[in-house]
Structure formats: structure tokens, C-alpha cells
Write a structure and sequence with these properties.
mainly alpha
Length: 288
């Protein structure tokens, strides 16, 4: 349904009226034949019809389009009275801003916010009504802190209400303690599983380190044995070197003796014999 034409100030162009309800267009849509309708009106019409109510041309919901921009501008500039005019509101504003005004209008009829109260009251008088509404909430005059929501609650039993409140608090506390207990147990189980897993990993790493240490100690012992053998071979080679040096010195001395031929032959025979004895000594060379 459209806006009541009686609310508008001044002349309203015929083209801005709905072809179905004959009121001023509300949320307008336009058919291919350029006839305009309120959205609610044309949708309701097309439930039972398949043509335009003006010229009977075929119309489908999918063919409906928004109003032309110039027509939309003309529509928005129309001036009309607030719908609360009968309650005393004298506001006149454009159609474009009427919805915003009516949502905040002080003369709008709104329901009381207290549960159980069915009174409709003007927005401007709502505070005064809430102060005297029989369904308003207030605290117990005996000081127990209970919120009285209706007239029947004025005779409530303060002791019983406090006991009920304590039971509720006790139940809530027990629930919270149980939740905290379950959460802590869950965390402890998770940490315990993590620690067991970590311990297993560390144990494997320790075993691997022990294995590596054992292999390293074996390699060290092998190297030390090879080093001892090599040292012995070096000592033997050094001994042989000294013997050869002494032999060469003896040969040099013998060569200087030029007294007699017999003496030379005797001298030559002794160093050669010593040289042969050195050659006959076995030598082992170890390659590391």
C-alpha cells in the first residue's frame, strides 16, 4: 500500500500514483509498459494475474525495474504531514526524510517496556508512565535485594528468596569448580603425555650419544695403538740411522789411513761386514 494522498501538501502528479491502490507510490517499481506500482501492490497483483492492471500487457516479476531517476526525484521532493498528525505532531517534511522523522517522532505510539504491560503510550510520555506503571520493576522494601516485577511479588518471602539465591549461587559455584577441575585434569594429562613423549625422545638421544661415544672411544684406542706402533718404528729407524752414521764415520776414518795395502784391506773388510749386518736386520713399516 502507498502513502495516503490526503497527507500530502499541494498537488501530486498523476504519474506518481500507484495504478493499483491509487495512493502515492511507496517503494515503487515500474513495468516495461512504464506504469508504476508500489512494490507490495504489484507483487500481490501478480500472484493472481500475469498482466499489467492498466493496459493488460504481459508482466512478470523479473521484468519489473526501479522507477526512472527523474520520477524518483520528483517523488522524494513531495511534502507530507507526519502520520502522527492526529496525536498533535505538526511536522511537514519531504517524503525522502519522513521515515527517519517518524522513527523518532515524540508523538509516536510505542508499547511500554515493562513485561506484562500492554499500554501504548506516546514516546514523549513514556518516562512518566514508566515511573507509575504497576508492572515496573523495583527492589523489595524489606531490603533483601529481590527485584519486584509485578504487584503480586510484593508479598514474597524474603528468607525463601535468599535461600533460593544461595542455592543458585552454590550450584553455580559447584559447576564452576567442576569445570575448573576438569580443565586442570585435562591440562595435566596433556602435560603428562607431552613429558612422557619428551622423555622417550631424550632417552633415544642419550642412547644414540652413548653409541657415538663408544665408537669414538674405539677409534681413539685404535689411533693410540697405531701411534705407539708408529713411535716404535720411528725409534727403530732412529737407531738404525745412528748406526749408519757411525758406520759412515768409520769409513771416512778408514779412508784416511794410507799406511799399507794390507792395512787398507783389513779396514775395508770390517765396515763392509758391519754394513751387511745392518742390511740383514728386519724392518717393518706400518702405514697409517
Amino acid at each position: 500500500m502507498g502513502y495516503d494522498i490526503e497527507r500530502f501538501v499541494g498537488y501530486v502528479n498523476e504519474g506518481l500514483l500507484c495504478s493499483i491502490c491509487r495512493d502515492v507510490l511507496e517503494d515503487p517499481l515500474q513495468a516495461p509498459c512504464e506504469h508504476a506500482f508500489c512494490t507490495a501492490c504489484i507483487h500481490g497483483w501478480l500472484v493472481h494475474h500475469s498482466n499489467c492492471p492498466e493496459d493488460r500487457q504481459m508482466v512478470d516479476v523479473s521484468l519489473l525495474r526501479p522507477l526512472y531517476r527523474y520520477m524518483k526525484n520528483d517523488l522524494n521532493r513531495l511534502q507530507l504531514h507526519c502520520k502522527n498528525r492526529e496525536y498533535g505532531c505538526e511536522m511537514v517534511c519531504s517524503l525522502e526524510s519522513i521515515d527517519r522523522h517518524e522513527r523518532e517522532c515524540e508523538y509516536s505510539q510505542i508499547p511500554c517496556s515493562n513485561a506484562g504491560c500492554t499500554v501504548q503510550i506516546e514516546r514523549r510520555n513514556l518516562d512518566g508512565h514508566l515511573a507509575v506503571c504497576e508492572y515496573r520493576s523495583r527492589e523489595c522494601p524489606n531490603g533483601c535485594g529481590y527485584t519486584i516485577l509485578s504487584a503480586e511479588d510484593t508479598q514474597h518471602n524474603c528468607v525463601a528468596e535468599l535461600r533460593t539465591e544461595l542455592e543458585l549461587l552454590r550450584s553455580e559455584m559447584i559447576c564452576r569448580v567442576e569445570e575448573a577441575k576438569h580443565e586442570m585434569e585435562s591440562r595435566l594429562d596433556s602435560q603428562r603425555r607431552h613429558m612422557v613423549q619428551k622423555e622417550s625422545i631424550l632417552q633415544n638421544e642419550i642412547e644414540e650419544l652413548k653409541s657415538q661415544m663408544s665408537r669414538m672411544m674405539s677409534d681413539v684406542r685404535s689411533l693410540m695403538a697405531a701411534e705407539r706402533q708408529h713411535r716404535q718404528e720411528l725409534e727403530q729407524a732412529e737407531l738404525e740411522k745412528r748406526e749408519l752414521v757411525e758406520l759412515l764415520r768409520g769409513l771416512q776414518k778408514d779412508c784416511r789411513l794410507t799406511t799399507t795395502e794390507g792395512s787398507r784391506k783389513s779396514t775395508n773388510f770390517r765396515p763392509l761386514a758391519r754394513l751387511e749386518s745392518v742390511k740383514r736386520k728386519p724392518r717393518e713399516v706400518t702405514v697409517i
